[in-house]
Amino acid sequence: MASPEPQSSNFATTYRTHLRPSRVTIDDSSQRETNNTQEQEQQTRKLSQKQKVSFCQSSIVGHLSPWPTYSSGQTILHNRKPCSDNYRKRAGSWRLQSLGITKPRYLEQLENYLRKELLLLDLSTDSAQELKLQPYREIFDFFIEDFKTYKPLLSSIKNAYEVMLAHQREKIRALEPLKAKLVTMNEECNERILAMRAEERSEISLLKKEKMNLLKLIDKKNEEKISLQSEVKCNSVVTNSPNPCHPLGAEVTKLRKNLAEEYLRYLSERDARKILIADLNELRYQREDMSLAQSPGVWGEDPMKLTLALKMARQDLARTQMELNTMKANFGDVVPRRDFEMQEKTNKDLQEQLDSLRDDYEEVRKEHEILLQLHMSTVKERDQFYSELQEIQRTSTPRPDWTKCESVVAGGPDRWHMLAEGKNSDQLVDVLLEEIGEMLLREKDFFPGLGYAESIPHFLRFDGTVENKKPTKKDVITLLKDAWKERLAEEQKEKFSDFFFSFLERRFGPADAMAWAYTIFENIKLFHSSEIMSQFYAILTEKMSESVYVKHKETVSQLLKEMTNVDSQNEGQLTMEQFSTVLRNAFSSKKEEKIQELMEAAGWHPNSSNADLLDYHSLFTEDEEDQSMPFVRMLWEQYMDEKDEYLQELKQELGLELHEKVTLPKVREALMTIDPSLDKQTLNSYLSQAFQLPLTELPEESEEKEEDTVIKLQTVLERLQKTDIRRRGPREQEPTS
Hints:
The chain is mainly alpha-helical. It has helices at 11-19, 35-63, 85-99, 105-120, 128-146, 151-238, 247-294, 303-331, 337-395, 412-420, 425-443, 473-489, 496-526, 531-540, 546-566, 576-586, 592-601, 630-654, 664-674, 680-691, 713-722, and strands spanning 446-448, 465-467, 573-575, 613-615, 661-663, 710-712. The protein has six domains: 11-174, no CATH class; 247-290 and 305-333; 335-396; 398-441, no CATH class; 442-620, no CATH class; 640-722, no CATH class. Helix content is 68%, strand content 2%. The longest helix is centred in the first third of the chain and has 88 residues, at 151-238.
């Protein structure tokens, strides 16, 4: 709600501007107005002052009179109370009437002026009272200006009232938000009351339904009770001693027992009532005896009648005493029903606790058995691992001292430390073999040709010797990168090995193309640790499809593009939370632990904050050895692991050994089972790679036969391992029984 506009400085301005443009008064809050309004007020104030001076001068010179002070001592009315209001009114009227004195002209002018100004006001607005007050202010200003002697006092009075009015306006303005808040709170309370009433209505309806259900249950129980009573009566007619082994006989026995208990309870109630009646009679007799003893006419009763009454009272007393003794003998050991019900309730609670503890004990016992079995299996594994450890310790050789290689490797200790950083013993052996092989490769001047056999790749078919160009590892990697750039730029119609040889012919000429082909082939065959060399070698030897490398590069570039889109400020940095969101959106099928591995490879640690910034461009660069950063290598490793898991799951779904044969329909069915999200085009491409059939020759699902396209499972898996195969969606969970 908007705060109310300040009114203390606007009423006078509104009055002067709209109702009386020829007369302007000075107000304390005029300083808040704009510069244009101040200039207009100054001009209007000059005109107003001139009118005031002329009005006051004419009044003072011509018509200002000391009425009614000049006639105060002429007429005195006697026999009146001088302090009463009636005296004042009547004395004033008599004095004026007797002397024939009228009001001064100045007073009449002020009254006429006030009357006219009040008539000009629009009292239908919200600020009517403030506007109505303005003419009175001006009349008061006239008094202050005309009566110079009383001007300081009148000015102080006026200022005091103005300050008080301003204070009251501020209070009213401060209370306006509270009024709005009260209205809002009233509406909220009404809404809560309506909501509570709706809840109560729903609860009442539920209780009514529950009441109807309980009434139906009571009727059902009453019907069962009537049926049982009828069965008991029928059984009592057939035989007086029912067989306790028969279900009906057991029910009759139980009912008889309940009937006996109820009979005893009613008997005790009857005896108690009799005792109470006897006590009441005794008290009544005593009261009658006391009344007879106190009444004066009791000695006039018949002695025979009193003797007979005494005899009957003694007989009643003896009979009552006998009944009391009989009841004490019969019911002295009977437990009160209230105690019996309390004990029965306690027994029921204890029984429920016992049942709950039994259930808990059964669950704990089962968990204990499971833990025992787990413990036994863990102990067996521990013993097995211990025996394996003993065997390994007995047969293992000492760990090699890799620091000895520092003096052998070219580049000295610094280069060896750079090569050995973060590698295990197996990887260090590969690094050492690469260094030794590189030294031997540089010592060769020529390579022997491999001939023209069918098993020899097309780019290596040569008879004779070819020259070893002896390029550095950096030169080979640069040449391979240029080859990939040219390969990705064209339409990839020809075979990759043919493209590679034609690329060398274009780069070095037909004469040196074969020498460079042998040189590059020997280098990429040697350096397994180089990522680009090993991938290029696998594609050249057709151990891996070219589409695998292309798809990996597309994934990396798409991931960089998404990170750049998230970086709206183009600062080159992302928070760990943004980085995690990009990974989850890009790899929606990856598990959470795989996402965590990628984040750790990017430099995130579990103890670090999500607000830490990450330079994501550095994740896609290469080091001095032209190796990808750990993040990109982790993407490649995860892809290869996921492919192996996918193929292993396919093998398990087929349920065959590697040497057994499999048909195309079974492979199609298995692929659709483990990956229901596969579309038809992708599924046909997988089957085309597995069975080496063109897409146009693949049979339709309805036309497939079991005897068609039968090959070994090992061959199928090897062919799928070469191509770009990956899961398209989660596997549907089997319904639980």
